[in-house]
Amino acid sequence: MPVTITVSEVRDALYRAAGSQSARGTGAPSLAVLGQWFHDAVGWMVTEVSGVTPLAVLADVDENLDVWKRTLIDHAYAHFVGPRLTSHQAALQEVATQVLTFWQAMQAACQWLAELAWSLRPTRKSSRMAVPAPWQSLAAWLTTEEPLSCELREPGWIDSVRLVGIADAVVRLNSSGNVWCAIEFKIGQTSPTADLGQACLYHLMLSAAETSRSTEGTSTDATLDSGTLALISFRPDRHEQLFDAATLQTARQRLVDLIGKLAGVDATQANPPETRSAPVTRSTRREEPVPAAETRPAGLPYVRPTEEHLRLGQYLVTTLTQEYGVTVSLDGPPLVGPSFLRFPIRLGPRMKVAAVQQRVEELQLRLGLSRPPFIAIEEGMLVVDVQRPDRQKVLFDDVRSQLPAPDARLGGSHVPIGVDIAGQLVCANLATTEHAHLLAAGTTGSGKSEWLRTAIAGLIVTNTPETLRLLIIDPKRNAFHALRRSPFLWKPLVFPDEQPTAVVLKELVDEMDRRYRQLDGADSHAQLVARSDVPLPRIVCVCDEYRDLISRSREERKQIEDQICRLGAKARAAGIHLILATQEPRRETIKGPLDSNIPARVGLWMQKAQESRMLLSEPGAEKLLGHGDLLFKDVGRPRRLQSPLLSEANRDSIFGS
Fold this sequence. Notes:
The chain is an alpha/beta fold.
């Protein structure tokens, strides 16, 4: 069975090979959330909903290119950009320069789409009734976020490699699809070498698909078709580079050689495939690459699938194909996570993802599962997550070494969220805009309180009382008992039935205001610490049951929400952060100060899909397995992780230190 490699893995390797600083191109760095919005916005403008795309707004204005450009810009702001800026106003107010650059790039993208639509207008007035409107043609020919894959075989390889990824956009200029252009968007600061290599990989996969639709794989010496490659960057003005297929041949061969090395199938390399890590299905989240100088600790040991796991995968395929007529096949061996098995699925001819998604309940019954399977698209592959019959725990000690090393003066700002399918620990960095505050939700048995304790433990082990202080609000009175004598406490444990929470939060707001008076031109806690001789610890306020706090009286609720709103909007620059949790993510709890000020979400198991939508803006948390199985949403689609468990012995030693 072929080894699976993602485009993201190849791009990261190219970036590291070029050197982190020398690899950077022109333009200012963009926040991950703004980059994701940019890609989402382009997809939104060309996606049909009930037969209509946002581009159809051009039908109501004069046929003039400048008018079309202004119309698309206004429409994109009113219906896409504006609502997102408003809902994330608090989180983005400290990064006004990046927001402005994003909006300038969005205007350039709207102008580009208007120009494409303009070029598709009929040249003769008499023919205009016989062809679709230009915006209809553009929507039909341009697809965004298109999953791609191809199988590579080379002389000297001991196995084939399946390359998977998601192209930013593909333009097919005729109905047969043999004239096409692969497009890769870049916003903000670019990495020319890695960006071009990534775009070439999408061109390679499209070439394979278009030249040999009926074969299982392709060699790199396959006949090249008429496809071209466009690398479009917005920095924030539009810059375009076009490459024909013949020009890309040399670059493609070098990339294929690199893929063989990364996959461990090149017989000339020292590491055979049995010693490499399992193929990993990674998030499609766009973020800055890991610098070459940064070394990441290895993840958890790779667990090979057992015979029972393999039989479960075969039964999954047999059930879909023979019982329900959904033609699928396994696209590789299952990935074995601590809590679930991830089966990569290849759709048969003319099969759609919806055909599999519609059989979730039937699959649950046929496979004898206590929770429905979880179906998603990861890096161009359709995957089905099935609860593992021999579920394993992940202990905090197993991943403690993966926590980033703390800064000597600032301490550590990373909160452990959970372990991904590859055994890598995913952390939220409180020092960043996207992760400045966290909101978690989960019902009884979801592991919410255990996740909070692990998050606190991760902060404590990477800090000292001089770099970190905790404000713990414990309505249940039993979640954080081991912390009662901790030297990390900013104040003694707060029990709302003894001490009004609004008063404590007001003291925290006063501390924030005091620190703001000290900033004196500095724009972050790090800059303030760097210029001060007096320790200024990061303060993290943790509350286990936020809903209980706002359910006591209308007056107290208003006071608490006012303080939370102020802290959420301004506290990051002062080194103050919120980690709030609730058992019931209802509309009256989430909507309001929390929704607009806390973009990073941790969704543990919930009882209803509606609760998942309230927290994560989409269903899915109701299908989780409980006991630390979670979805983490910051930028893009939620990622499925497993929270490490803090043992009682660890809890006492870390919290009581």
